[in-house]
What we know:
Layout: H1 22-40, H2 68-82, H3 92-119, H4 127-141, H5 161-179, H6 187-197, H7 210-222, H8 228-234, E1 241-244, H9 252-262, E2 269-272, H10 281-288, E3 297-301, H11 308-318, E4 324-328, H12 335-344, E5 356-360, H13 366-372, E6 383-387, H14 394-401, E7 409-411, H15 420-428, E8 437-439, H16 448-455, E9 470-472, H17 483-493, E10 495-497, E11 503-505, E12 517-519, H18 527-536, E13 543-545, H19 554-563, E14 570-572, H20 581-584, E15 595-597
Amino acid sequence: MSDNDPEIAPDDGVAGNRNLPDSLRRRNRAVAEREASRLARPEGPRKSSTLGHASRSKSAVSSTPFGFGLLQKSAKTSDEGEGGVTEDWCGPFSVARQMIAAREDARAKREAEQKEREESADYHPLDEIIEEVEIAKKRKENPSIQWQGNPVNEHNGRSNYYVIRKRRYAQQQRGVSASAGGKIPSLFHLCIDLLVEYFDDVEALGDVGVDIRRAICESLVAKGKMNGAAFEAIAETGIEALELVDCAEVTQDQLSRSLAALIPAGLRALILNHAGRCFGPKAVQAIVSCPGKSLFAISIGGAYLMKDSDAAALIEATSGTLSSVSFKACPLIGLSFCNSIADYFGTCSGGGSLLELSLEEMPLSKESLLALGSSDALRNLKSLCLKQVEGVDDDVVTFMLCQITSLESIDLSNNISVTDTSLSVIRKNNESDSLRALQLSGIRNITAAGLEAFFMHDIPGLPNPPMLRKLDLSACDEDVVNDAVLELALKASLSKHASNGTKAHAYAHVQTTGLVHLNISGSCITDKSMENLAAHCSSSLTELDVSFCPKVSDKGLGYLVSKAEHQFNKIHVWGNAQITDEFLDGHSRVGEGFEIIGAWMKQSGKRSLR
């Protein structure tokens, strides 16, 4: 070695001619000292700390080539050396490992509690028997707990959820078709389809009834064939009722000419849905100017051209024979219309007797509604609908109901100013016990206490609660409609009253009464309400809506379907993600025409199947 050659420093006993910086040599030495035991004996436990992002006791990931078994042995030692403070790894194997560990911990806890109970001086051999008795009592009080579904698994394991739902819907449709009289369409529907297919060649329908004309009109609208020519064929002279489900293609001049010919010929009912621009001042003038008017029912929807004065003139001209008035979404109607009803249906005017009044989605003020009830024009009313009317509040309801003596149906849906006071007024004015339908959908200001008082018996100064057949309490506040409220309503629907005014409860014996239509969507009812429905209304209930009721389970619905009789044919379950195939495919009436509406998904390119 020459004097000019660089001197190679020894590497602590390691031969070689590497020229490494001191910092790198120190780092390599530290790594070697820390990992020497693991590298020399990879099957042995690692003594150093675990990874900062994983828990070796719960993770299925091992850094050794010998896998999970040896990791299990070393996990406890490692965690004890670290003080047990580690973070959980979020991988799927680690999650499964954590679940297994939690299950083992729970089992060990149960065994420890059992051992402690057996060794305790307070333990008695009859404790287990008492516990079984308590369980049996709970099952007796809640029989739906024991319900078990019987799903028929006809699909293979490769079928996805969409395929299963599609098969279920097809099976349900076959059942509905079979219950309606067979899979082959009826002769009536075949004739309607054939007639609509070639309706362009039809000049007149002749002497056919109102139901047939309605079916033809519905089919024409569904197939996009409802035009002016089709209207002329439907509205032929001599018919007693003109009912159109959609008047979008009918002009006002065309309707005016038809009314001028139909009314003198004996037209008795005029029902126009989606009237739009066809029913305006000209159409009203055609009715007013006709002699010999015999209209007893007028129902107009969506007539945005009809003014307040036109509606008042229409009521004045037809009040002698008119008994049913219905207007929906007619934005120009106001005070003059209400005054005309109060004036021309009162006893002083000598007009007719108004039996049905329906005002929906109308911008009527409180002043107009109070004017409507200022006389005795509503004295004989059987059905009152004030749905989503701006001016309706407790004062209006009180003022109008005090004029009515035998109301059978009332609809106050979507009126935000109605409170529990209106409930009390409805019950006070039901002295004749004639109320059978009550719709309070979307009323947010009523309370559970108000509903309980409405349906409760034996309240001094109040008549008995109504024996309802139709009840709609949907879209109220979540905690308003609960199990207690519904139980009172069900029992009230089964009460029967003796002729002397005393009441006799026959909840378990009356078979011909009870709720027929019930809508409690958006409520907090539970399976207890399903059990009460099965106990009280199994022979009367035909349709139930429990959409968006998260506390109702498969067992409650399955128990109700198994106990209800065959008149119960439709249930709505929209928004209930907790309802599973155990009920949808396992209830007792699969394939018998029982409709479950809401357990389906939207098909691509088509509207939702309902």
